[in-house]
Amino acid sequence: MSSRPEPYPVREVPAGAFREDEYLGTKFKFWFHDGAQRVLFKRGRRDEDWSEKVAAEVAALLALPAADVDLAVHEGRRGIVSPTFLAPGDQLFHGNELLLQVRPDYPQHDRYHVAQHTVDAVFDALGVAGAGPTPEWPPLFEGFEAPDQFVGYLMLDALVGNTDRHHENWAVVQRGAQRFLAPTYDHASSLGRNEPEHRLRLRVEGGDPRVTVESYVHKGKSAFYSEGEGARPLTTLEAFARAAALRPRAARAYAARLAALPAGAFDPVLLEVPDERISELHRRFAARILGCNRARVVNVVKALDEE
């Protein structure tokens, strides 16, 4: 990696901040006001603070609409803060609510192991909802639609190894009469953040071909399933490949953006994580994940052109 940049700042959440508790999801979190801004504090599980921050910075490098994330601390406990992307009066409809409109038997209260949560179903739901792409971001090409933007989200998932794109981790915003795909958010389950140190050492430094970074990224499961009878969980790369098959123009455009990043583009993103938040071994492991997945994503799109 290159010379060391300044570390990311860590925001102190006031102990007495007025709280609006957030019950969606499984982690301790609450909303508070920083001046006129409504901000979410989230205390994650082990190492979810740095992984969520790094994934958000990778999304920014790819010019994807994404929730802003900063490292934070509240009453001595690590976490992240993320300002709301909703304007006053906006409504947020999560994926499970939207999927119920296209599949009346959709199990909207089951967050995990939902075989009906497929890439095809998501694209159908975005169409039925009448959602467009996020309006503040320039479209990649003429005729760019919300499913095209979602292709970029699935490319990000494949790149960082995000295993948690379940149906409450994507949404549509209603702003007046307009509906659009919400920015991507909640990427904490990424970059091998929960892999124990002894396994990291084996994967990064060991000589066992069965325990490598490559073997790790190849088995990373997404929250999506294959279509049809005998549905099975897709890997993060397979979910992106399915989206690429459905929306090849968007996949080519996003993959071109990824391929155009200079070598070492992700190094500063990891180097700016403060040492007290990430081990050096985890930093090396995450860098290897990004490098390996970058090549795999680009190869998926190359395969489209060879068919």
Topology (SSEs and partners):
Blueprint: E1 10-13, E2 20-21, E3 28-34, E4 37-43, H1 48-61, E5 70-74, E6 77-83, E7 91-94, H2 95-102, H3 119-129, H4 146-160, E8 171-175, E9 178-181, H5 197-205, H6 213-218, E10 221-225, E11 233-235, H7 236-246, H8 248-260, H9 267-271, H10 280-306
Parallel strand pairs: 1-5
Antiparallel strand pairs: 2-3, 3-4, 4-6, 5-6, 7-8, 8-9, 10-11
Beginning-to-end CA distance, first to last residue: 37 Å
- What's the oligomerization state? single chain
Uncertain segments are none
> How large a portion of the residues is in β-strands, by DSSP E?
15-25%
Average pLDDT level = 93
Question: If you had to describe this structure to a student in words, what would you say it looks like?
Answer:
With 307 residues, the chain is α+β, with helices and mostly antiparallel strands. The chain has two domains: 10-83, Phosphorylase Kinase, domain 1 (2-Layer Sandwich), CATH 3.30.200.120; 86-307, Phosphatidylinositol 3-kinase Catalytic Subunit, Chain A, Domain 5. Helices cover 39% and strands 17% of the residues. It has helices spanning 48-61, 95-102, 119-129, 146-160, 197-205, 213-218, 236-246, 248-260, 267-271, 280-306, and strands at 10-13, 20-21, 28-34, 37-43, 70-74, 77-83, 91-94, 171-175, 178-181, 221-225, 233-235. The strands form three sheets. It has a six-stranded mixed beta sheet with strand order 1-5-6-4-3-2, covered by helices on one side. Strand 10 (221-225) and strand 11 (233-235) form a beta hairpin. The longest helix is centred in the last third of the chain and has 27 residues, at 280-306. The protein is globular. It starts with 9 loop residues before the first strand and ends with a helix. 41% of the residues are buried. The model has no long low-confidence stretch (mean pLDDT 93).
